[in-house]
Amino acid sequence: xxxxxxxxxxxxxxxxxxxxxxxxAPVAPYRKGRxxxxxxxxxxxxxxxxxxSKIYNPRKTxxxxxxxxxxxxxxxxxxxxxxxSATAMVSIKTMDxxxxxxxxxxxxxxxxxxxxxxxxxxxxxxxxxxxxMMENLLERIETGRKRGQGTEDIINQEQTVRRILExxxxxxxxxxxxxxxxxxxxxRGFQCVTKKPLMVILNSDEKGYGKSPAVVAExxxxxxxxxxxxxxxxxxxxxxxxxxxxxxxxLGIEESxxxxxxxxxxxxxGYISFFTVGPDEVRAWNVRDGGxxxxxxxxxxxDLAKGFIRAECFSCxxxxxxxxxxxIRENGLFRLEGKDYRVQDGDILNIRxxx
Length: 355
Ligand SMILES: Nc1nc2c(ncn2[C@@H]2O[C@H](COP(=O)(O)OP(=O)(O)O)[C@@H](O)[C@H]2O)c(=O)[nH]1
Ligand SMILES: [Mg+2]
Description:
Elements: E1 2-6, H1 13-21, E2 38-43, H2 47-56, E3 60-62, E4 65-70, H3 86-92, E5 97-104, H4 115-146, H5 152-169, H6 181-186, E6 198-204, H7 213-220, E7 224-228, H8 230-236, H9 241-251, H10 257-269, E8 271-276, E9 281-288, H11 293-300, H12 302-306, E10 308-315, H13 316-322, H14 325-330, E11 335-337, E12 347-353
Parallel strand pairs: 1-4, 1-5, 3-9, 5-6, 6-7
Antiparallel strand pairs: 2-4, 8-9, 10-11, 10-12
This protein binds guanosine-5'-diphosphate and magnesium ion.
């Protein structure tokens, strides 16, 4: 799962990125020019993994991961629709979801904070980017038609593109549209950025944290939102877990930034976790909610999906309760499932396959 942090310059994206990934990417008070995005892998902390690891005592314990990409900021003074550089856009299109970081702290180098206005601006820029892409596509379709190209697929694509353009022109992102299976197919090759799930981080400072309930409420009408004390969390990321949770408590933050983000991302994107266990490794994986045993198999390795025979399955909860796999079998909690089995959050799977 890949998530991109986007937002205006100076909203604190790199600060939030550092807080989440414990990296030390340069944070700039104000910086001109474009730089390569920062990329890091974030572990999805899950105490079930730790507990399973105690039972199996494996050589390796591996958490599920989320790849986080910190893009350089949008420049407000760019022309309309030019806020994202072309190279950034190519990369943004490969993300599974986006997080808009909006500034909710005062900064000597910047105008006063207007998080709602910032969010509105980001939304508009994303819509403009899709508008331009869809307009280009429509032009190409029309040119093709003049040359006599007009298969059923192309006609269907044209209708879909026109409908999307209509929505975008009314400031509606593609994610809010209900697309039929046919329409989905028609635009599959064109990654609309407004189709991607968008979450929001309201980046507050230590003093203001928790004091903007009206702003949070307004944002949450449309988006999954989380308030973050970015700089504060970044400073905490250098401390050990116990120390940092004491500081967090003072501010009324219940869980670490990473923990809160991964929970939010899983919920917004509809991901669940399943596990594989054994003496070699205990490992957590992400799969889309609604995914089948076959999807789970292909998440692990394409060979497992190709040669899929069946999935041996039991639940993590039962395993922790019984204390061992032996206990699972004795209590009749061990199941064999076929490729269409819908994976549940917390399932422990062993894929039987043959290549
Ligand atoms: N007071 C305060 N300053 C912050 C906070 N988050 C970021 N900053 C400052 O805002 C400036 C821009 O931050 P940066 O992370 O580089 O923003 P980016 O351009 O979005 O990546 C830096 O000077 C940060 O120290 C915060 O929560 N509180
Ligand atoms: Mg930055």
